[in-house]
What does this fold into?
Amino acid sequence: MESPLPDEAPEPAAYAEFLETDAEYSSTVTLDALRASDYGRLDAQRHVYLDYTGGGLYAESQVRSHGELLNRQVFGNPHSGSLSSAATTHLVEQARRYVLAYFNASPDDYTAVFTLNATGALKLVGESYQFGPGGRYLLTFDNHNSVNGIREFARAKGAAVDYAPLTVPDLRIDRPRMEALLDQADPARPNLLAFPAQSNFSGVKHPLDLVDQAQAKGWDVLLDAAAFVATNRLDLKALHPDFVSISFYKMFGYPTGVGCLLVRGAALSKLTRPWFAGGTVNFVTVQGSRHILAPREAGFEDGTLNYSSIPAVEIGLRHLERVGIDVIQTRVRCLTGWLLEKLLALRHSNGRHMVRIYGPATTAMRGGTLTFNLYDPEGHLLDYRRTEELATDQRISLRTGCFCNPGAGEMAEGLTESDMVAGLEEGGDMTMPRFLQIIQHRGGKSAGATRASLGLVSNFADVYRFYRFVADFRDQTRLTIGEVSFDIESCRVIRDGS
It folds into this structure.
């Protein structure tokens, strides 16, 4: 039996107050019309979607346009000179040019390599970068696991691996420590710095001036832009990272199965493929045991591209351009600011704070990703897994766990190396519930959180309904994880400055 839902519309007084304090929101009303025309399934299903960092939502018009394109033409495998192959190649190359144009990247400066996803793009860099003894791989604690995984390639080739820490509670890069680590590079060796333009854990927007600073000290820079470009403009004419990883479905929902690696021209020669595959060679011989790799992007696109889906990338980018990335950014910033303020103000009847936000408490240099935990009146952590179940009952889609970003979570929760080693000692049978028990007995620490993220067609009704859902946890005491606790009053000191 379906659970009862709260009223769909926010209280008129609450909406009026919001518009009065966030006047810029009125400039984004075109998104309301777009939501009605192209994303009507949200309101038809009374669905509050708050997982844009996990995956964007596609517009109905995107799917229609792609379907019409496929239905009016005959497309075949592009590795041929046939009529159908030529038609496919034309659309793939047209999409490639459009990707470069969207990010204001000249074809003379950047190469666009299509991949399965952002992880595939990052793996290309990891396996092909010329790591070696005397070289370094530097990354921030705040990174997706697909960036963390590159350290295995670096270590296997003899490069040093270092992590730059974050400041707490805002979870921003510790710039003095970062600068000291950058100074350790030998410019004569291959050195790679990797960091996200925007955190998929906390929503922090990391300073992009790090790109120029690192390059001046002899580093190549890998910028993970997957969580950034859905609501922010990335101008590669103004900023010149050596490698940029992109996830298209996180930008506009459709298609999945297509990502991109943008490679700066000078950096392309620093990538050496450890193997070759179908589609990546101009010539290969079995008897001669030799091969000649294809130039530029062709040497990195293994096998047959997802050629029926790649044309949908251009359709999605055109969709974002029609909407306007600045309009999306403004709306997300307004809604995020309101939700942050309201969540941080929630208290139990005894005066204790209910919510602990990880990362900035304001919208300054942060995106629309809010990660938090809820606590009972005695400061005990509420079970975020149960929170997700209850949100699902209310038709609210959000996400819980560590979000494939363990470093940011460890910093946020104050977990130490010894805490993590204690978990590793359990071996292959380790699970998140078991790890929670272990760190509970190591001083009442916790791991994991709840994440709500805003995006393209989020509106005030979404955040209001979510706020009321969280407010209903006031004075809840029976959803705790064992005896895991946190002195939420110390959070009050951090947030209120009192």
Summary: Confidence is low (pLDDT under 50) at residues 1-6, 481-498. The chain has 20 helices and 17 strands.
